[in-house]
Design brief:
The complex is a heterodimer. By secondary structure, chain A is an all-alpha fold. Among the domains of chain A are: 62 residues; 87 residues, Alpha-Beta Plaits (2-Layer Sandwich), CATH 3.30.70. Helices cover 61% and strands 2% of the residues of chain A. Chain A has 20 helices and 2 strands. A two-stranded antiparallel ribbon of chain A has the order 1-2. In chain A, helix 1 packs across helix 4 and helix 6 packs across helix 11. The radius of gyration of chain A is 23 Å and the shape is globular. Chain B is of the alpha/beta class. In chain B, 22% of the residues lie in helices and 28% in strands. In chain B, the strands form 7 sheets. A 6-stranded antiparallel β-sheet of chain B has the order 21-22-25-24-23-26. A 5-stranded parallel β-sheet of chain B has the order 3-2-1-7-19. Chain B has a 5-stranded parallel β-sheet with strand order 9-16-10-11-12. In chain B, a hairpin with a 5-residue loop joins strand 13 and strand 14. The longest helix of chain B has 15 residues. The N and C termini of chain B lie far apart (54 Å). Classes of the chains: A mainly alpha, B alpha/beta. The interface between A and B is large, with 44 and 45 residues.
């Protein structure tokens, strides 16, 4: 039997990935093939990235542009079979190590040190288990994490682009998340350090990056000179002005599926599992409490921090630092990382974004009540097939709206546009339209609608 | 009042939910031999191809049936006993009704071909068809699909997705030419062949022959060609399923005869969806509409009339859509599939050099009456409005962008249509 060319090419890509992973495994065990040198890192990263790109793109090479969901529910890796569980365990273990046991990752930290040094202009000594244990952390644990994260976004971004190359919306969006992750999510914060500037992430704002509205961090930035002042203003303006204005015009999507790094990972690396999100009413009920609960938590924590700062630590003692610490542990580590990404292969791609992200909660409230964005339906063309609901990573039962010809205005919708892409009858379209009556009852009286929604 | 609905497809279920909205007190029973819960039969292909699980094709969560107090009875009905007002199940059970709604759907046409009932020969309409196909396609190398229409291309795509070598036998000289005019049919045919499926035009089935295992093994065409295959898909249209009415108690012709209020000739018995044949003023024969949305609309009318609203079924401006592999098709209004443009008509035709985007606008007596688009999503409400308002083509062309339903950033074709559109006059080939 002849082997299809794309399969053979894909196998070559897989060998590259295996080589890269083997090098990482060797480093993890303390014995990289070419030592902790630039060549050693290249020996790992080049086959990993190039092989990954080949492997990601090959299955779609030579196919006609269009929806490529054949066999999704037959593949054990995509339908909660053993490969999915294995991957879930590996990702979860990695997150646990990054957050709580960085000493376990010393080998990998040393592997990436040459790139870390080149980008940040620093020249750190090799990390040691004892040293990391004693310090409790090492900046390279986060550099390692950011590097792998970015590799995942770019490589799987190529896959996403190939899969949906018939849709310019998907191509533009995928290019956008890859760009923002590669630059503002990874390179820029590192390069800033080389120029003795603060490590600043221009694409994250309060409450996702809670510190950017904390008094101590703002003070710290301002003290670092002109660029620091700009960064402080940037963080405040984005959180308080840009978020509502952009969301009014374009919906939540301008951030969640065009800019955000978490969204970027979900839309690229997470795409193979987007169909696993639960569409049940129970999941929706949980989501409403969990995501808004986190928003309340971070708002209270931030308020506490400011109150404490205003009282110069006199009134509340350690309350604010305790709250910040626990919020960081529970939301920052457990929910966003371990659960939010580690469970991708089992619970779907947007676990964090859907259930816990406080930024998504704010954007969602704005989208639901103060935005022009909606998904419209095309008359009576819906055949209730269910592709839209199945491939909605946010667990929205899109079909329930489409089959009665209703517009979809939901707080959770990240505007990825995949529902519209997979629809076989051309029924769904993302639009930035008027805000009045065609959205939902009371949409011209948002405050009233908000009260009604709360009463439900 | 006990309302029994026979069939839990789109027509029956829409009717059940519509009755519940109008008559909170009524007892409603949904009867189905096919499945426990309503699913989207149009989505069966996606289940086979692994895009969805069968459960994902259920348009309502299962809690809805309890919430709406819709009782569900699973079983095949052998006969409708009008005299005693009850259903007789094949297993001997009976179910009495006060009002009966027939929504029994349709079944694949079998035109008396020798071998048409062999194992390995099947249509694609029900869950049972899907299960049979799943069983037959294990290790399957070659399949033949008989019928060059919509279900034909769907079945071909399904088999092709599992690596099966598929040949479609199309009676017509072009693909689905009893619905598509010449150029659309050609473009669709090209897309199918580009995907790797062979279409034999002008080819009719003569017989299906069994192999040594008793299963279908070979197809013989009228021209005497023989095609070895492990599966034969019969997709030459569907006919109303009236098998439970063979006792003649409820008059049928092609389908269950109903008037425009969707009442059968028997009091308290209604019919809707794929099984109904709608006649004007109790004429002897009428039209059968077998689309998803016509089933939905008819189910709604029956619900209204069960509540005494006395509504008549009026379909409005025709529309339909489909997908041929990756090529999407929308149609609004009337487009004559004839090979030449009719007298009194002229057509504006445009297609992209890739052959993957095309538009036809039909003009009759100076007004737009219909359109076809390929690879170009079009808005139903806008076209319906244009057709109802009898807008001239020139006005429509000026506002063409309004009708686009393409995603943001999509290529725009409006200017290309205005510049490169070609008029086909009466008598020219379509």
């Amino acid at each position: 039997m002849s082997v299809r060319t794309p399969d053979a090419v894909g196998a070559i890509g897989a060998v590259g990935v295996a080589l890269g992973l083997a090098q990482m495994g060797a480093a993890l065990l303390g014995a990289p093939m070419a030592g902790y040198t630039g060549a050693g890192l290249a020996l790992c990263l080049v086959p990993l990235v190039v092989g990954g790109l080949i492997r990601a793109v090959a299955p779609y090479w030579g196919t006609t542009p269009g929806i490529k969901n054949d066999g999704v529910h037959h593949a054990p890796s995509q339908s909660r079979g053993w490969p999915a569980w294995l991957l879930g365990v590996v990702i979860t273990a990695f997150y646990c190590a990054v957050y709580w046991a960085p000493a376990q990752l010393v080998g990998l930290m040393n592997l990436v040190t040459p790139l870390y040094a080149a980008l940040t202009g620093k020249a750190p000594a090799l990390a040691t288990v004892e040293g990391v244990r004693a310090a409790g952390w090492d900046p390279r644990q986060w550099f390692l994490y950011g590097l792998l994260y970015t590799v995942a976004v770019v490589v799987m971004g190529a896959r996403m682009a190939m899969r949906y190359r018939h849709s310019r919306y998907q191509l533009a969006r995928t290019a956008s998340v890859c760009f923002f992750q590669l630059t503002f999510g990874f390179l820029v914060p590192q390069l800033l350090q080389a120029f003795q500037q603060p490590e600043f992430y221009f694409t994250y704002f309060w409450p996702l990056k809670k510190e950017y509205l904390f008094p101590s961090d703002l003070r710290g930035l301002v003290e670092q000179g002109t660029l620091g002042v700009f960064m402080a203003y940037w963080g405040v303006l984005m959180a308080l002005v840009a978020v509502p204005v952009l969301t009014y015009f374009y919906g939540k999507r301008w951030y969640c599926s065009w800019v955000c790094g978490c969204g970027g990972l979900a839309e690229t690396a997470g795409d193979p599992w987007r169909h696993l999100s639960s569409k049940s009413l129970a999941a929706w009920r949980f989501e409403r409490w969990s995501i808004h609960g986190v928003l309340v938590l971070i708002t209270l924590t931030t308020g506490l921090v400011w109150a404490n700062s205003a009282a110069q630590g006199q009134v509340l003692g350690h309350a604010s630092s305790t709250a910040t610490h626990w919020y960081g542990f529970l939301v920052g580590a457990v929910l966003s990382g371990v659960v939010g990404v580690g469970f991708y292969p089992l619970l779907g791609t947007r676990v964090w974004c859907r259930f816990f992200c406080p930024q998504a909660a704010i954007l969602g409230l704005l989208q639901r009540f103060f935005s022009r964005f909606r998904i419209t339906t095309n008359g009576g063309q819906c055949i209730s097939c269910g592709n839209c609901s199945t491939y909605c990573e946010m667990g929205i039962d899109v079909r329930a709206y489409a089959q009665r010809g209703a517009n979809i205005v939901r707080a959770s919708c990240v505007g990825c546009g995949v529902c519209a892409a997979v629809c076989p009858r051309g029924v769904l379209r993302l639009e930035n339209g008027a805000t009045s009556g065609d959205r939902f009852p009371l949409s011209d009286k948002p405050l009233h609608a908000l009260m009604e929604a709360l009463r439900k | 009042m006990h309302i029994v609905i026979l069939g839990n497809g789109i027509a029956g279920v829409t009717c059940a939910l519509g009755v519940r909205r109008r008559l909170p007190q009524a007892r409603i029973t949904l009867v189905s031999g096919e499945s426990d819960a309503f699913f989207s039969s149009t989505a069966l292909m996606y289940v086979f191809m692994g895009h969805m699980r069968l459960r994902d094709t259920e348009p309502y969560e299962r809690r809805v049936w309890d919430e709406q107090r819709i009782e569900r009875v699973r079983g095949w009905v052998g006969a409708v006993d009008v005299v005693n007002a009850r259903l007789e199940f094949t297993d001997g059970r009976t179910l009495p009704w006060d009002k009966l709604v027939l929504a029994t759907g349709a079944q694949p046409n079998r035109f008396g071909w020798p071998g048409q009932d062999l194992p390995g020969v099947q249509g694609l309409y029900s869950v049972q068809d899907l299960e049979a196909l799943e069983a037959s396609s294990r290790g399957l190398k070659r399949g033949v699909v008989v019928g060059g229409g919509l279900i034909g291309v769907e079945l071909a795509e399904m088999l092709h997705s599992r690596g099966v070598d598929v040949t479609i036998l199309a009676r017509e000289p072009r693909y689905w030419s009893n619905a598509l005019p010449g150029r659309e049919a050609d473009l669709v045919g090209r897309v199918i062949e580009r995907a790797g499926v062979q279409v034999r035009y002008g080819t009719e089935l003569q017989a299906i022959e069994a192999g040594s295992n008793g299963r279908a093994a070979e197809v013989v065409t009228r021209a005497g060609d023989r095609l070895a295959c492990g599966l034969v898909g019969l997709t030459a249209g569907v006919s109303p399923n009236v098998s439970a009415l063979s006792n003649g108690a409820v008059p049928t012709r092609r389908g269950v005869l109903v008037n425009t209020r969707l009442e059968t000739r028997v009091e308290h018995v209604y019919a809707c969806g794929d099984c109904a044949e709608i006649t004007e003023d109790n004429a002897e024969s009428g039209r059968v509409e077998q689309l998803w949305y016509t089933g939905r609309a008819q189910g709604e009318i029956v619900a209204a009339n069960l509540a005494g609203e006395g509504r008549t079924y009026a379909r409005g401006v025709w529309f339909n859509s489909a997908k041929f592999f990756d090529l999407e098709w929308h149609t609004y209004g009337e487009v004559d599939p004839a090979p030449v443009v009719r007298a009194g008509e002229r057509h504006l035709w445009w297609s992209d050099p890739s052959g993957l985007h095309a538009l036809r606008i039909v003009e009759r007596d100076g007004a737009v009456t219909g359109m076809n688009s390929l690879g170009w999503r079009q808005r139903q409400d806008v076209w319906t409005q244009w057709i109802e308002a009898r807008r001239p083509v020139e006005a429509v062309l000026k506002e063409l962008a309004r009708a686009s339903f393409e995603p943001e950033f999509a290529r725009r074709f409006e200017a290309a249509v205005r510049q490169g559109g070609q008029w086909l006059q009466a008598g020219e080939s379509t």
